[in-house]
Design goal:
Length: about 140
């Protein structure tokens, strides 16, 4: 019997005065996972299965909280390392600036000493050379 013909039959039976056909008895059909014979016979097994199903949301919640905690600790460790590296970079840049200034000071001192060299040589009695002399010390030149 199809679903479309059934209401018409019910209407006919109501109008004709005959009793409606009896409905079939309802029964429970369990869906989902198939149960084994040991679960059907053992109430403890059913209780364990019920507890396991009840604990699943808590397990997922616990895993989520653990993941968030590990992420938070990882983030804090990363930030701490970045701050430490930043501090070291700042110290190195300061050290490079001091060393650059020392090199410039030493270069200024050297330039001053080179400029005072002719005066010191004259005080010692040295005479500046007027022309350049070249010596050839090779074997072939005689």
């Amino acid at each position: 019997m199809s679903a479309s013909t059934r209401p018409a039959e019910v209407r006919r039976s109501i109008h004709s005065g005959t009793a409606a056909p009896a409905r079939p008895a309802l029964r429970v059909i369990e869906g989902g996972k198939k149960s084994t014979a040991s679960q059907k016979s053992s109430p403890r097994a059913k209780a364990k299965a019920t507890r396991a199903l009840a604990l699943r949301p808590f397990l997922r919640f616990g895993i989520g909280i653990a993941f968030l905690g590990v992420s938070l600790v990882g983030s804090l460790l990363l930030r701490t390392q970045m701050v430490q590296d930043s501090f070291e970079v700042t110290q190195l840049q300061t050290s490079i600036g001091v060393l650059t200034q020392d090199v410039q000071d030493d270069q200024t001192t050297l330039d001053g000493l080179e400029s005072s060299l002719p005066d010191k040589a004259a005080n010692l009695g040295m005479v500046p050379q007027s022309s350049t002399v070249t010596l050839d010390i090779s074997k072939n030149a005689q």
